[in-house]
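Here is the promised in-class demo. Please do not try to memorize the tokens; focus on the logic of going from shape to residues.
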């Protein structure tokens, strides 16, 4: 299944290369939604919230509402989800699921406290854990969005497996190759197959790159 994604920054839909450099910006966000209306799922990522530079809550809310009521789509929302309050807010805005990113890690360890709180607050089925990777290893970004490559040497299997073993695997895991993101690249350095990972993102600019993925 292909899942379109709308990345939001400064009230626009944008494409960032390697998660940093803006390649393009589209002001007509709802025009993009119209183009994606035949897909069953939509991802909406609030980059401003992720980078601690504000938020696009009103836009996220309207995208969730229109996607659901006008087109029958389900929406996963990510970006800046570091607390249960934020996750509950997004679910209230209409998100079917929330995507948890760098907040999964604290001081080099899995943030089990937050995962337990989310499980209780919004239910495990509503939580998707995003694992950003750089050359096959888990990575995180600082508040400016820069990749902190050296912080986490653990592999995808190790982290996803550890979460699942503790009953906090969420509804699925999203594997995003930071080195590929926004590039339309066909390299597979950060795309190793895993039974734990159900969603792949980053660099899917061609049908060849998506081939063979379920």
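The designed amino acids, position by position:
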């Amino acid at each position: 299944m292909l899942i379109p994604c709308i990345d939001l920054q400064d009230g626009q839909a944008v494409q960032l290369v390697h998660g940093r450099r803006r390649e393009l910006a589209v002001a007509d966000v709802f025009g993009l939604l119209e183009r994606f209306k035949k897909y069953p799922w939509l991802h909406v990522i609030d980059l401003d919230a992720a980078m601690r530079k504000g938020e696009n809550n009103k836009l996220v809310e309207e995208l969730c509402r229109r996607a659901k009521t006008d087109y029958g789509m389900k929406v996963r929302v990510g970006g800046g989800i570091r607390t249960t309050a934020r996750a509950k807010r997004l679910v209230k805005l209409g998100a079917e699921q929330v995507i948890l990113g760098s907040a999964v890690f604290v001081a080099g360890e899995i943030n089990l406290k937050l995962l337990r709180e989310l499980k209780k607050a919004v239910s495990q089925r509503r939580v998707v854990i995003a694992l950003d990777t750089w050359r096959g290893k888990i990575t995180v970004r600082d508040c400016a969005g820069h990749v902190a490559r050296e912080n986490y040497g653990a592999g995808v299997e190790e982290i996803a497996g550890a979460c699942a073993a503790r009953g906090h695997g969420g509804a699925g895991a999203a594997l995003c190759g930071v080195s590929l993101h926004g590039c339309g690249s066909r390299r597979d350095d950060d795309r190793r197959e895993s039974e734990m990972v159900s969603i792949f993102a980053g660099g899917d600019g061609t049908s060849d790159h998506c081939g063979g993925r379920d």
